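Human:
If only I could read backbone structure tokens as easily as an amino acid sequence. I am handing you a single protein, as its sequence and its fold in token form. I hope you can help me see how the letters and the tokens relate. Thank you; the sequence and its tokens follow:
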Amino acid sequence: MAALSGLLPVVAHAQTISNTAQIQWDAGASRVSKPSNVVELTVEQLPPPPPTLTTFQFATSGSGGQSLVVPQTMCHGSGGNREVTLGGAFDGKSLSPATVRQASAIRAGEPLFVSLQSAADNHEGSSIETLLVTLETPAGDREQIALTESAANSGIFVGMVNTSPNPGTPVQGDCTLTIKPGETFTLSGLRSSDGEALATSPVEVLIDPFGIVFDSGDGAPILGSRVTLIDVATGLPAQVFGDDARSIFPSTIVTGSTVTDSGGTVYNFPPGDYRFPFARAGTYRLQVEVPSPFTVPSTATPAELAGLLRPDGIAYTIVDASYGAPFVLNDPSPVRIDIPADRPGGAIAITKAASNPVAAPGDPLQYRIIVRNSDAVRTTGAITVTDTLPSEMRLKKDTIRIDGVLSPYAATPDGRTLTIPVPRLRGGASATITYILEVRPDAQPGQTLNRAQARDNRGTQSAIADAAVRIERDAIADRMTIIGRITDGGCTVDPDAANGVPGVRVMLEDGSYAVTDIEGRYHFEGVLPGLHVVQIDPSSLPSGQIPADCARIARTSGSAISRFIDGQGGALIRA
């Protein structure tokens, strides 16, 4: 009986496979064996995929995330090997597993989770391996950490490194990766055994929250402002950590001062600048106290502040939290909150003029008000012009304009007080208000005065500006004329056909009188408008004649010798 067997040596990384067959048989009492020829098979081995470096951060509640088991990471630092541990703002966070989210942006001071996928470093398929890598930043920091394989034969190595935004010179080997707030850096992973570059990953570095307290009038930072970070959940000052996310940082800072955290790190704040390096995820608000005469929250709108620039030449970031509203720290988005404060500006100047110093009833007059910011640098607050009109005049509808543009306004029920809103005026700028008033027909002659005053929402107000106009009435149009006739013949005779009675005295209530002519006619010229009484003197009637009340109307009041009359200027009244 013969047996045939194949010898297949297994070599993990061989490129050539050799195969030799052998036959054996019995020849009498002897056993004979003979090998075959050798067959060789060349296998082309594919290179492993290039390593990839992925960065993660802790995921906050409601922001999604994935479960990642983060093994205990060892740091190979200048002081020897030590464990990388959580602390400060991250007390109580779980690492096995940790709820993380892939992130290309982190806050300065929070831990950075690193996942390096490298099949070339997966040497033993049956055991969990470690990979010592060196992480470098462009600022010059260099830290060595030991990443641990997530599972046997996975080729995925996971670890953690703490970060710090300490603005000083990075210290290599201190087991903390120093990164610069506000910039984007490329994290490079190097294999420590041979220095070979494994992979890179860009990371944006943020800090929360920070900003500048500034003058809403000219954009200048305000020295000496007290800013406190308040935890909305408790209503108390929040717990704040320093740049290392461990040391206790004051919850209140004063702009332009120096602050030292519990770890001894010194922070210098330029005028107007504030920063709270790190706080736990949550809802906060900024409590701001500004030096006199500034006030907060500002009354200026984001649109009104749009033209103001920070000292670095970039526009201020104005959000709801700039006015004291709560804000949320729950993701890696930048949390810059610039805070405007109001200060009363320089004097607001106002002048007023009428198109004509003299007017008559019914005449239109154009009034012009010029409001000017006398401060060449600072912007005013929103301005309101209050204008009190004389009783002899009334506003012509849809004539109020600011710099030629129709403007809204408010008026009191009697129409005499106008309130006109004027936009904020930049340094040295002015606005011109125009409108038309009409002189009322019943306006009495004499001097009228129109007064206006401007005030902004910061409490700055102008002096009172006025414009005087003299109202004159035409001599004829200002007075009325009374005419009439005394006739003979009684009530049955047509007055127009009756004979006039001459020589009859006719009087007014003020004692003035006229005597009828040969046709019985009389008249009074230049009578003031209003109510008057015309009466005949019965003693001046010819003998045998007596007065008769033929009209029997309300104006006679039952009297045969008198009449009530009422008229306006320019009227011709017959009695």
